[in-house]
Each structure stands twice: as C-alpha cells, then as structure tokens.
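new request in #modeling-help
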Amino acid sequence: NAGVTQTPKFRVLKTGQSMTLLCAQDMNHEYMYWYRQDPGMGLRLIHYSVGEGTTAKGEVPDGYNVSRLKKQNFLLGLESAAPSQTSVYFCASSYRGIRRMNTEAFFGQGTRLTVV
Amino acid sequence: AQRVTQPEKLLSVFKGAPVELKCNYSYSGSPELFWYVQYSRQRLQLLLRHISRESIKGFTADLNKGETSFHLKKPFAQEEDSAMYYCALISGGSYIPTFGRGTSLIVHP
C-alpha cells in the first residue's frame, strides 16, 4: 500500500497563477482533509470531505476550492495564488471508525508551495 | 468548540533528561486524543493514542479528564527524539482531527 500520496512535492507559483494539488489514498478511507502548516501556527484545516461527492470548509478555506469526485482522490485548487498562500500543504485521510477504533489520520508527504 | 493548546513552541533538553510535552484540550464530551510526530522534512505519523494506553519509543501519555490534559512524557530523551510533536483531538460524532500548534523538541547530545 502506498498510503497517502500527494503531487507535486514542490511548486513555485507567481502571484495570480492557479494550480491544483492532488491527493490520493489507497486505504478506502471515507474522510479526507487538507491542512496547511505554517511556522508557529501548527496545522490548520482548509477543507475536508466525509465521503465521495461531499466537501466542507475548515478553519481557513478562503482562497481555496476542493473536489472529491472519487473516493480515493481529494483535490485542492488555488484559483489565484497569493504570497500568503506560501506554505506546506498536507493531505490526510482517516477511516470512519466504529467504536472509536482506527480513527487516526494518515498523512501525505506534503507539498511545499512558494508564491512569489 | 473544541480546542487543543500546546503552550510550548520549543522544548530544549539534553540527552538523558526527562521530557514532558504539554497538551491541554477544551471539549465538554469524551474526546479521543493523539500524539503525532513529524521528523525533519517527513510526513506526520501517529505516535500514540490515549485509547491504546501504550508506550511507543519510550513515550507515554495519560489522559487526565479532570485537568483536561494529555501530556506526553519520556523519562530519558534521546537525540533521535528531536522532532515536531503535535497533540490532536477528535470529538465524539466527528472524526475530524483538531491539532495544536505543535512543540518542537530538540535533544542536545
């Protein structure tokens, strides 16, 4: 099993450009998440999905859009990149555990995005 | 609303010293609590969860509902423990983890 795979690993964008980050998981997890990691701010939830075809806003959704057309994939889009979106982005997935078992999140390796 | 607080951004100790990384949470129900670790330039990975009551790599954490804390402890720190540690909470009915801001642990030789 590959687990959670993110592409690309690195990217430099110019202000105003758009891009899509792809997250794929092969664990048949229902839940998927996008976080951004910034120094001193920890992990902040951007958007999440509780199942195929569903998405919801997290703590810091502005400037981002997401789609989950297939259960195994969760895409994060930046329509018009801004320098404030320079960050490390992590995708994660988790199982909808029963009786509070196996509910931990599995993370991708991260995407380091710089917006200049 | 649920919240996870890690009061220390940085914890610096010498090899062999005891380590305690603090985590406090606010949630009125029965939470699930986790510690995740992120080694340099790597992905976050689960270290331990309160339900399992296990010791991983010498680390333990006890859930104290009275103090709403889930501190991570290790009696003798090793250099390879140097990493970023995140405390996380899942509340009943929601499986979306809320993370603290993280504590960077540096273990000096």
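bot summary: Chain A touches chain B through 27 residues (CB under 8 Å).
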